[in-house]
Design brief:
The protein has 284 residues and is mainly α. 85% of the residues lie in helices and 0% in strands.
């Protein structure tokens, strides 16, 4: 079961997620970005710079090392996803901004993940490192599994808008189901070690989630001064694409241990995002 999920299920889940992003995209989403670029620039800067910096600080402060540290850092290189789009809708945030940030960040990370991922491997594993992210091969895989499916989703929406609207919710539910099976499978594969790893990474994963959400919201309020857009930046910066992180750690790097941080994080973020959404709805 584990090998089937790793080799087939995980890439399929991510492809479905990115098709779902494409199905939700309209030309108006990008038009709004160009008309009001400040929120987009703040959001993308937080995703590309603030996230990795906070991850490095948390890793150092919690004492994570080796594969556990690498896995958490790679997670920080995977911002956005359909989860942030969904919660932006639920929290009455700027959904168009959320989708635009998810899409553009998804393209940028095809370049940053192999480059910064290799830095993390060298930095946290040192000379004992037995892992490597081949830059060109990793870039091609990420393009094929993230960018191209997004473009396919956009094409489907342009041609069959009614079908796209009906299919989008089912695509998201199916991908979340596969991600859940993947997390369960990883736990079974690790066996007795899973509790130890959970204790080691749980606090760091929670800290990464909560701090990035908090910083995203505060920076958004400070630099954008728009409540809806601040909520969006909070969710886009604070909710990482756990499926993409697992694809890198499990499928490309072939490390079950590296997948612990992203797996724990993927479970925790639904709780924190739901709490944030309830707070925002009470706020109005």
């Amino acid at each position: 079961m584990y090998q089937a999920l790793v080799g087939i299920g995980l890439p399929v889940a991510l492809i479905l997620i990115m098709i779902g992003v494409g199905l939700s995209l309209t030309v108006n989403d990008f038009t709004q970005v160009f008309m009001q670029p400040r929120a987009f620039l703040v959001g993308i800067t937080c995703q590309m710079l603030l996230l990795p910096i906070i991850a490095i600080l948390i890793i150092d402060l919690t004492g994570l090392s080796g594969e556990l540290a690498i896995g958490l850092f790679i997670l920080a290189l995977c911002p956005g996803g359909t989860t942030s789009n969904l919660y932006s809708l639920l929290a009455k945030a700027d959904v168009g901004l959320s989708i635009s940030l998810t899409t553009i960040a998804g393209f940028i990370t095809t370049f940053t993940i192999p480059l910064l991922g290799n830095w993390a491997i060298d930095h946290y594993a040192g000379e004992s490192a037995r892992f490597e992210l081949p830059v060109l091969i990793t870039w091609v895989k990420l393009m094929a599994i993230t960018v191209i499916p997004t473009l396919i989703g956009m094409g489907i929406r342009m041609q069959w808008q009614g079908f796209a609207g009906k299919a989008e919710p089912y695509v998201s539910k199916l991908s979340i189901g596969i991600l859940t099976l993947m997390i369960i499978s990883i736990a079974l594969e690790l066996g007795g070690k899973v509790l130890t790893y959970l204790l080691q990474t749980g606090f760091a994963a929670l800290a990464l989630n909560v701090l990035t959400m908090l910083m995203g919201y505060l920076v958004g309020k400070w630099l954008v001064d728009n409540e809806q857009q601040a909520r969006t930046i909070c969710l886009e910066v604070g909710l990482q694409n756990g499926t993409l992180a697992l694809l890198v750690t499990v499928t490309i790097l072939d490390s079950t241990t590296m997948s612990i941080g992203p797996s724990v994080y993927s479970l925790l973020m639904f709780v924190t995002a739901s709490l944030f959404t309830m707070m925002m709805l009470r706020k109005g």
